[in-house]
Design goal:
This protein has about 550 residues and is α/β, with parallel strands linked by helices. The chain is about 35% helix and about 15% strand. It has a ten-stranded mixed beta sheet with strand order 6-5-4-3-7-1-8-9-2-10, sandwiched between helices. A four-stranded antiparallel beta sheet has the order 11-12-13-14, covered by helices on one side. A hairpin with a 2-residue loop joins β12 and β13. α6 packs parallel to α10. The relative contact order is 0.16.
Length: about 550
């Protein structure tokens, strides 16, 4: 029998099988490549989609600027850029800070009333989620704030100063508190600035805008904190800005207060029935003043009817307020530079912009001397209590106080396409609510761990229900006031507050928003109820700081 045919057939079969295996192998490679490529492309486009949908954030914090010291809240000071933000966003008529610089900043960045070693700066969470983070401005923390929350620890770029510093470079070149660039001490001339003479408000914007180019050009979401320090003392401003206001305040603080009250009512920010609180002197028993010039200093904390001032005093007081107004005006100009940048880069529609102040206007005498007038680099002057009282219209008292004049701030938020323009809400918010709001807005989850730290959970509550046009469930409490001497605790419309560590006062803010009638004597049961709730809540907050 001839087996050659079978042999040829077997050889053909073998070759065919080999070809088939080779083809299968090639096909597998092709399929694997396609699948992997598709996955890579999906991840890329998903990342790009995420970049587009994750909003940029600019958070601007004014300093010692009272409730009615900006145009959108009744001021005669020209703030067209804040006016624009208000027209294009939402204004909160009822918003609280912590009534002083360092507690407000500590609560702002951590979302906590009371923090400890596990406190985390929400900007760190954003950075871990892919944000480029910039801190340009004042940095001031309470003692409980751990090292990990400081800007030098993790911000991509930072220019900071503690507490306060001069606006112009001092003649000695030594600032009260020096500047730090990414954690390194620098002099004024080592800091990038575009205009001479060096002026802090402008310089902070110069650096912020320069640093924003990197994330914007790389299409990366960014968070920018601008802590201008304006209009905290010392009263210093560029001459051209002061000139805009010189003479406009000779009508006096009484008249300006009345005009601001009417504007607030006409805007719908406060009710028509709101009464202007009586003019008040600064009666803080725990905040003294430098020694010397006692005759001059005796008048600074006092309210006096404007008509009782002589012509020279009125001119001096007009200059003082003109410088303060110029500082607010300059801040607004710089906010305009930031808004223009967003427009030029075509990213305004995907950027949340927030503006508020850290506490009410400041009445404290920290004047070094009276050899130089307010405004100039050689001087170190502060605002008189009567003008600070104007800033806090329609409320009473000042920075540090838990009364509304110290703790009640303006608040503006713009988020095009997400938040309806031109709104005024009378729902209440608090500075401690900002961190949880921004995490929700950016769809960023609160982490279980940050490095080796298990973060302390936020004590604030997101404002997103309000921003989306709904009703937010009222948080169970609000706290403010500097130390237990001036502590404020609020539940719904009821509020207890201390003055100079004395007995608790009681107010119904729904009926009496300017705290004219103290109800503590006639309603001791409500006082006791709120005091008990406050003490319980304080214990709970302190206990949270000890959790691992």
């Amino acid at each position: 029998m001839n087996y050659s045919g079978w042999s040829n057939f077997n050889t053909f079969t073998t070759i065919k099988n080999q070809l088939t295996m080779k083809q299968v192998f090639i096909y597998l490679i092709i399929i694997t490549t396609v699948i992997f490529g598709t996955f890579v492309l999906y991840k890329y486009f998903d990342q790009q989609r995420s970049v587009k949908t994750q909003p940029n954030i600019i958070l601007i914090l004014g300093d010692d600027i009272g409730y009615s010291d900006i145009g959108p809240f009744g001021s005669e000071i020209k703030t067209p850029n804040l006016d624009r933000l208000a027209d294009e966003g939402i204004r909160f008529a009822n918003f609280y800070n912590m009534s002083k610089c360092e507690p407000s900043r500590s609560s702002l960045f951590t979302g906590l009333y009371e923090g400890g070693k596990n406190s985390i700066n929400f900007a760190q969470i954003l950075k871990n989620a892919g944000y480029y983070v910039i801190h340009s401005g004042k940095e001031h923390w309470l003692k409980w704030a751990p090292e990990q929350v400081f800007a030098k620890t993790f911000f991509d770029q930072s220019l900071t100063f503690k507490a306060m510093s001069e606006f112009f470079e001092p003649p000695s070149a030594d600032f009260v508190n020096p500047f730090y660039l990414n954690g390194k001490h620098v002099t004024a001339q080592e800091i990038y600035h575009e205009k001479e003479p060096f002026f802090k408000t402008d310089v902070l914007t110069d650096n912020a805008l320069k640093w924003m180019d990197e994330p914007v050009n790389n299409k990366k979401p960014f968070f920018l904190f601008l802590g201008y320090g304006a209009a905290h003392y010392p009263l210093q401003a560029r001459p051209e800005d002061i000139a805009k206001y010189r003479g406009k305040y000779k009508k006096g603080w009484d008249k300006i207060r009345e005009e601001r009250l009417l504007k607030l009512k006409s805007m719908g920010i406060i009710a028509e029935t709101t009464q202007l609180s009586p003019p008040s002197s600064n009666i803080n028993k725990f905040r003294g003043h430098p020694k010397g010039d006692e005759e001059i200093r005796a008048k600074i904390p006092l309210y006096r009817p404007w008509e009782e001032l002589n012509e020279k005093e009125q001119d001096d007081m007009d200059l003082e307020m003109s410088v303060f107004a110029a500082m607010v005006d300059c801040m607004d100009q710089n906010i305009g530079r930031v808004l223009n940048y967003l427009d030029e880069k075509k990213i305004a529609d995907n950027t949340i912009v927030i503006y508020l102040s850290d506490n009410g206007s400041c009445p404290y005498d920290s004047n070094r001397d009276f050899d130089f007038p307010p405004g100039v680099a050689e001087g170190f002057r502060t605002l008189s209590a009567a003008w600070a009282n104007v800033g806090n219209t329609p409320f009473k008292y000042f920075k540090q106080y838990g009364h509304e004049g110290g703790a009640h701030t303006h608040f503006i938020l713009r988020w095009p396409g997400k938040v309806k323009a031109g709104q005024i809400t009378h729902q209440t918010g608090h500075i401690v609510d900002i961190a949880p709001t921004l995490l929700e807005a950016t769809k960023t989850k609160f982490p279980e761990k940050v490095g080796n730290i298990k973060p302390q959970p936020f004590q604030g509550n997101s404002l997103m229900p309000i921003l989306e046009g709904g009703i937010r469930e009222e948080p169970p409490f609000y706290i403010s006031g500097w130390t237990e001497r001036f502590r404020m605790f609020r539940q719904k419309e009821w509020k207890i507050v201390k003055l100079n560590g004395e007995d608790w006062e009681l107010y119904n803010l729904e009926k009496d928003p300017t705290e004219i009638t103290n109800l503590a004597v006639e309603n001791p049961e409500k006082v006791n109820e709120l005091v008990s709730a406050y003490e319980t809540k304080q214990q709970e907050l302190k206990a949270e700081t000890k959790n691992e």
